[in-house]
Specification:
Elements: H1 2-18, E1 35-37, E2 43-46, H2 59-72, H3 80-83, H4 87-100, E3 104-108, H5 111-118, E4 128-132, H6 137-144, E5 149-153, H7 158-167, E6 174-179, E7 181-182, E8 187-188, H8 191-201, E9 204-208, H9 223-226, E10 235-239, E11 250-254, H10 256-265, H11 267-270, H12 277-292, H13 295-313, E12 325-329, H14 336-349, E13 352-353, E14 355-357, E15 368-372, H15 379-395
Parallel strand pairs: 2-13, 4-5, 4-6, 6-9, 9-10
Antiparallel strand pairs: 1-2, 3-11, 7-8, 10-11, 12-15, 14-15
Bound molecules: pyridoxal-5'-phosphate.
Length: 400
């Protein structure tokens, strides 16, 4: 039986390779950090991790995780409602919801699961979801699992949002779903305007803040703090797999009754194993650290602003913004996709690890190298990266 599908898969894989879309995985032989060793033996500066606060290998986080292992054991071998809830899970839910300024929170094995389990229990076919066209794959999939009518919003277009709110006014409930920060551009959703329109038209607001929790806003609460709408967003989903230590896990935080309802009804919560206690304990440690001091997010902001300024001064076309995702754009050159890829590979020879993205990950003519800054980067790392960009940029005639 396997013969037929095998031939098809081989052919499909060949096509992916020929289109230049095959995703190779680089093997790291060290901890995750600002500097990593890769399997070729080379040591490189890492500018493509979601390790925004440098917590992935932070001594305090490692300590909290190993203490968690000792205190709570390795695994729970259970879902939450059978025998998979320890005090540490309840503590984490309390700390996360307090940090985000929400009533309550419910843990999931990943934010992918949080998004898979947040829509379907709350909205039925008489409801409508208005979803940004660039929302994360897991938001798209979560909405697919839900029977509500789906309306795709032109990316961050508030006129289109108002038109769709008018169009759906007969729905039982309307929910606006948006990423807080969009990962390919570093765009920050205009939550202030979204909440105004939601209030005016009596709609709910859901934000996936995976690329913001822990560092965006003055005290790192996320996009709702950055846009000054804390208390006006109904649901936040987020990940522990990025800024908050980077292991795994996610949650939905929101209004009390909604979270209680999700505990009864959300399928990835009910039918998937509980978060490992060591991860819960480490994330509690992260929440404590970030609640005490803004030092790390302040350093990240400084790094991000420094890198943007230095790259702009060097003559690169940077997508403007205020986020540690900094896209270096190649769209004005012929064959931008190949250029971005060649540029990234030349940077690796210089010891700078970044990734080039092109169609279909981003639109045609918008190929880019996406740089991600971290609080773990020191000024000399950033200078070294900019110098390498400048050197290759001149060689490839991207800057003069
Ligand atoms: C990374 C990401 C996710 C997935 O998070 P995991 O916890 O790794 O499953 C979901 N949504 C957005 C917007 C993300 O950036």
């Amino acid at each position: 039986m396997y013969g037929t599908i095998r031939e098809d898969l081989k052919k499909g894989l060949q096509e992916i390779r020929e289109a230049g879309l095959y995703k190779e995985e680089r093997v790291i032989t060290s901890h995750q950090g600002p500097e990593i060793r890769v399997s070729t033996g080379q040591t490189v500066l890492n500018f493509c991790a979601n390790n925004y606060l440098g917590l992935s290998s932070h001594p305090r986080v490692l300590e909290a995780a190993s203490q968690g292992l000792k205190d709570w054991g390795y695994g729970m071998s259970s879902v939450r409602f059978i025998c998979g809830t320890q005090e540490i899970h309840k503590t984490l839910e309390k700390k996360v919801s307090d940090f985000l300024g929400m009533d309550d929170a419910i843990l999931f094995a990943a934010c992918f699961d949080a998004n898979g389990g947040v829509f379907e229990p709350l909205l039925d076919r008489d409801c409508a979801i208005i979803t940004d066209s660039l929302n994360h794959a897991s938001v798209i999939d979560g909405i697919r699992l839900c029977k509500a009518q789906r309306y795709i919003l032109k990316h961050m277009d508030m006129d289109d949002l108002e038109a769709k709110l008018k169009e759906t006014q007969n729905a039982k409930y309307r929910l606006i779903a948006t990423d807080g920060v969009f990962s390919m551009d570093g765009d920050i959703a205009p939550l202030d305007k979204i909440c105004d329109l939601a209030d005016k038209h009596d709609a709910l607001v859901m934000v996936d803040d995976s690329h913001a929790t822990g560092f965006l806003g003055k005290t790192g609460r996320g996009t709702h703090e950055y846009r000054a709408v804390m208390g006006r967003v109904d649901l936040i989903t987020t990940t522990f797999g990025k800024a908050l230590g980077g292991a795994s896990g996610g949650c939905v935080a929101g209004q009390a009754e909604m979270i209680t309802w999700l505990r009864q009804k959300s399928r990835p919560y009910l039918f998937s194993n509980t978060l490992p206690p060591a991860v819960a304990a480490a994330t509690v440690g992260v929440m404590d650290l970030l609640s005490k001091t803004t030092e790390l997010r302040d350093k990240l902001e400084k790094n991000q602003k420094m890198f943007r300024k230095m790259m702009t001064d060097a003559g690169f076309d940077i997508r403007p913004g205020d986020h540690p995702i900094v896209p270096i754009m190649f769209g004005k050159f012929e064959n931008d996709a190949k250029l971005a890829q060649d540029f990234a590979s030349r940077l690796l020879d210089e010891g700078i690890y970044v990734i080039g993205f092109s169609y279909p990950v981003v639109p045609h003519g918008q190929a880019r190298i996406r740089v991600q800054l971290s609080a773990a980067h020191e000024e000399e790392h950033i200078t070294k990266a900019v110098n390498a960009f400048t050197k290759i940029g001149k060689e490839l005639k991207v800057i003069s």
